[in-house]
Design brief:
This protein is α/β, with parallel strands linked by helices. It is built from 10 helices and 14 strands. A hairpin with a 2-residue loop joins strand 1 and strand 2.
Length: about 290
């Protein structure tokens, strides 16, 4: 069974496209990254999957259930942390979380206490007394309370300090032992740490779905050349992209023939050559820039 599966899923806001013809498949058991800059369509995708907004066309399933016809059943087995969190300010943390727990079989109050302690929250505080980061913790605990089979996280680390982010990552890895994680973020370092597979979205369309390790082990390499002086000669070799010259250094991404590059470099006044696997951020930018060309 697929955790998430969509076919031509599309959402327009008037004439403005939010997402267009999304074909997305997420296998059960993965920590799946969904990356793109703000405004790319990440939140629209998630809100459409959860039937919080109505699709313009297309279809989708979560754990084999139709996202429109069976949205109530889906919500019972799905945890969701939205990008923006809003609560009734006069409730305490304890009251809000107990109310949330009451919607699920068994009223998981023991798990509630464990998570409140794990995320270092004061349960007696009113919501309107909490910082943005602590409100985010409440949202994360809400999503985890009922031990969902699918956990959907939309910019979930926003507002968390670095120490709490590390605790959050530990919890997510633990949850992944029994749940699929759909992790939407524009913070590529987070995705690289957590995810095994990733989809890249741009202007409402998915432009690539890859394994994270494969993305970084493609033919694309990051090349840094150190020259004898700042008089750096031009390289017109096919396969060079994202070229940057700073002082005596020339850095670029390369997906052409290695033999051709080495032949050109052998005739150049270089002191040093560094060839590296690109970071996920560099690969991401490479995909985005290629789409613009």
């Amino acid at each position: 069974m697929k955790a998430i599966e969509t076919r031509k899923l599309t959402k327009y806001y008037g004439r403005q496209p939010g997402i267009v013809d999304l074909d997305l498949t997420v296998e059960e058991g993965l920590i799946f990254g969904f990356i793109g800059p703000n405004g790319a369509g990440k939140s629209t995708t998630i809100r459409t999957l959860l039937n919080l907004i109505w699709p313009s066309r297309g279809s989708g399933q979560i754990l084999g259930m139709d996202i429109i016809k069976q949205s109530r059943e889906i919500r019972l087995i799905t945890g969701y942390v939205p990008a923006e969190v809003n609560y009734y300010g006069d409730m305490t943390v304890q009251a809000l979380l107990k109310y949330s727990a009451s919607f699920y079989p068994g009223h998981p109050t023991r798990r509630l206490s464990h998570l409140v302690e794990r995320f270092d929250l004061d349960p007696a505080k009113r919501i309107d007394q909490l910082s943005f980061g602590n409100k985010r913790k409440v949202a994360i605990i809400q999503a985890l309370l009922h031990q969902p089979r699918l956990l959907i996280l939309d910019e979930a680390t926003s507002g968390l300090d670095p120490l709490m982010q590390n605790i959050f990552f530990e919890v997510i890895k633990e949850e992944n032992e029994r749940a699929t994680i759909f992790f939407s973020s524009h913070a590529l370092g987070e995705v690289q740490k957590l995810c095994s597979q990733v989809a890249i979205i741009k202007q409402g369309r998915i432009i690539a779905v890859e394994n994270v390790d494969d993305l970084r082990r493609t033919l694309i390499k990051t090349i840094t050349l150190e020259y004898e002086s700042e008089n750096i000669p031009s390289l017109t070799l096919p396969g060079i992209a994202n070229s940057q010259r700073v002082g005596t250094h020339h850095k670029f991404m390369f997906n052409g023939k290695s033999k051709s590059l080495l032949e050109v470099l052998a005739k150049s006044p270089i002191n040093n050559v560094l060839i590296e696997e690109p970071s996920l951020e560099e690969v991401f930018l490479h995909y985005y820039r290629n789409e613009d060309e």
